[in-house]
Each structure stands twice: as C-alpha cells, then as structure tokens.
Specification:
With 370 residues, the chain is mainly alpha-helical. 73% of the residues lie in helices and 1% in strands. A two-stranded antiparallel ribbon has the order 1-2. The radius of gyration is 25 Å and the shape is elongated.
Length: 370
C-alpha cells in the first residue's frame, strides 16, 4: 500500500485492528509483520490521545474510537506473549504509548494533591478527580495485575513485563497522590484489593526479570522505583498511618499474620513471606520521644521475638537463608531494650556464631549486637 493510501486508511474505523490482525498472522512474511507493528505503534502514539494542533491550518488528527481502544487493550497483551522478540518489543512500546501515556498524564496532574495546602477548593478538585478516576484506576490496576500473572505463568519474556510494571508504577503513584490529603471513602472500601496486590509485589519473584540480562535488570530497576519497592511501600503506609493509624495497623497486622502462616505451611518455599513480615515490623517501628528506643503496635514484641526471631537466631546453619538471618538480627538490634536481660544473655553465643557468616550483612549485624 502506498504511503498516501496508508494515510487515508488510517482515518477509517478499525484501522488499528486490521493492522493488528496482520501482525498476528504467522503466515505473513516476517518483514511485513515487522513493518506493520511499527506502523501500529506509531498510529497509537499519534491517535490514542491526540493533542490539538497549534496551527489552525493543520487538520486535527482523528482519534481512535473508544470501542476500538477497548478491543486493542484486550488483544495486545496476548499477542505480545505469543510473538517473537522484535514484535514483542514494538508491541511493548505501543502499550506504553497508550494506557501508560494516559496514566503518566494523570500522574502529573494529580501530584498537586501532595504539595498544596488543604483548602475547600483543593478538596473540591480532589472530589471531582475521585468521582471520575478512582474506579477506573482500580480497574486498570487489577486488570494489569491479572496480565502480569498471566505473563508470569506462561513464561513471558522481560520485554513483556516492562509496560505492565510501568503501568503499575504509575497506578501506585496516582494512588499515593489521591490518598495524600485524606483517605477517600472509595479507597477505604477497596483497600483489600489494593493491599493484596501491594503484598504480592513485596513477596513475589519474577524469573523472567532475573533471566532478562540488561532488559531484566532495567525492568527490576523500574519496579523498584515503584511502590513495589519495600522502602517506598512502607513510607506510604507510614503516611497513611499519620491520619488513619487504627485502620492501617489492623490491616498490616493481619497481613503479617497471614505471611507467617504461609511461611509455616511451607518454610522452604515461602521463606520470603517471613522475611517480609519481619521487614514490615522493623520498617514501620516508631522511635519513642527523647531516646533511641523504638516501639510497634503491629505485634507483641515479646511473642514475635520468641516465635519468629529466636528460631532464626538458633539455626545451626549460619549461612542458610542469609536474608532471614539478617532480618532477625536487625529486629534483635532494634528491640533489644524491650527484651529481658536473661534472654539477651542466653542468645549471645548464637549471635557470636553469626560473626563467622559468609554474608557481610549478617556478620555486620551480629557484630553490632555483640
């Protein structure tokens, strides 16, 4: 098809779907499919949410109709999973240019709710945004989570995950902005859906990211910059707890118990659940005024120490599960003043053993305790 004819065709309804069908047809020559997917990507970039031209003499670009957008969103990820690396890469960029483009714009707009003083006008703006965006945001977040799960279960390559995790990163940033001034009713009613996914990203390993070489490392970096990063997730929870301490404490305490139950069911497989539980207690601990001691309302320190921490400290294998050992030693370091002196003295021989650990982090924490 000549370029002029292609331009004319691009204004017709379902043009994108026709190109996508061409891309998905394995009997078509690979170079033709490659050219088609590049056209598809560029078409989405220019027409998914087109800007009005600054020059009135330049005709406005015809946007992709909403029904066609819905079909594209349904078809694009399965096609990514079944395509070769080159086509996957282009489809990944196309997905980022569509849904993630909208999320990126929304993220920029909603940032103002983090930095402006609470006024009636600001709260009216926030209410308008919540009424129109809170439900679609949750829908996008959960739908993308489902796509990530599908990609993981089918062995998707790192390039498949890139736009999906970027979408989740943007969703989490928007979540933070919309919850900064206060906890809206919609998010309070749907906190379980959000926190279930947050927990998943705190504890789940995605093999494709570890095997993806440079792409995989870059994607891990993107993921770590989002809410899935433990430190940022905990900072968000601390921020929410400023005004909603009781709700956050109850929710996180329940999650900690669920994680520990999961670990107990299969310690060898679910050790990260225990690691995450310890991390939450340590990271969300608060310093007491006028001193260096800390406290927590998430767990009973003495029970948690005896049931969760002591078994790690008494483990005879000082090199096994070093992340768990480091977490246990850090907990011991932070809450030492709340643990009875006889218990501390009794555990010192165990602590000394960890000075010989191959892990620098483990023997450093052991050295601080000793």
């Amino acid at each position: 098809m000549l370029p002029s004819n292609l331009a004319e065709a691009s204004d017709r309804p379902n043009f994108c779907l026709a190109v996508l069908r061409l891309v998905s047809e394995p009997s078509i020559d690979e170079q033709i499919r490659q050219a088609a997917v590049v056209n598809f990507k560029n078409h989405l970039r220019s027409r998914w949410a087109p800007n009005l031209p600054s020059d009135s003499n330049i005709p406005a670009v015809t946007p992709i109709p909403d029904p066609e957008k819905e079909q594209i969103k349904t078809l694009i990820v399965p096609l990514m999973l079944s395509s070769g690396p080159r086509i996957q890469s282009q489809l990944s960029e196309a997905l980022a240019a569509s849904v993630n483009g909208i999320l990126g714009t929304a993220n920029s707009i909603f940032k103002k709710f983090r930095y402006q003083y609470k006024t009636n006008d600001l709260l009216l703006d926030l209410k308008y945004c919540l009424d129109n965006f809170a439900a679609p945001l949750l829908e996008i977040f959960l739908r993308t989570a489902s796509l990530i799960d599908s990609a993981a279960s089918s062995g998707g390559a790192a390039v498949t995950f890139r736009p999906l995790f970027e979408s989740q990163r943007l969703c989490c940033r928007i979540f933070y902005s919309l919850n900064f001034q206060e906890l809206p009713e919609f998010f309070e009613d749907h906190m379980k859906e959000w926190m279930t996914e947050f927990r998943k990203y705190l504890t789940t390993t995605y093999p494709a990211l570890e095997k993806g070489g440079g792409d995989g490392l870059a994607l891990v970096d993107e993921l770590l910059k989002g809410l899935a990063r433990r430190r940022i997730a905990c900072e968000l929870l601390k921020g929410l707890a400023t005004n909603y301490k009781e709700q956050v404490t109850s929710m996180v305490s329940a999650q900690i118990q669920n994680m520990l139950a999961s670990f107990a069911a299969n310690p060898a497989v679910n050790w990260k659940e225990k690691d995450c539980a310890i991390y939450l207690v340590v990271s969300l601990a608060t310093k007491k005024a006028g001193g260096n001691s800390v406290s927590t309302d998430l767990v009973d320190v003495h029970n948690f120490f005896g049931l969760v921490i002591v078994p790690e400290l008494q483990s005879q294998d000082v090199n096994g599960y070093p992340i768990l050992k480091a977490g246990a030693l850090k907990f011991f370091t932070m809450f030492r003043n709340q643990i009875s002196k006889p218990a501390v003295v009794a555990l010192m021989p165990d602590v000394v053993r960890f000075i010989g650990s191959e892990s620098n982090v483990v023997h450093s924490y052991a050295g601080k305790l000793y």
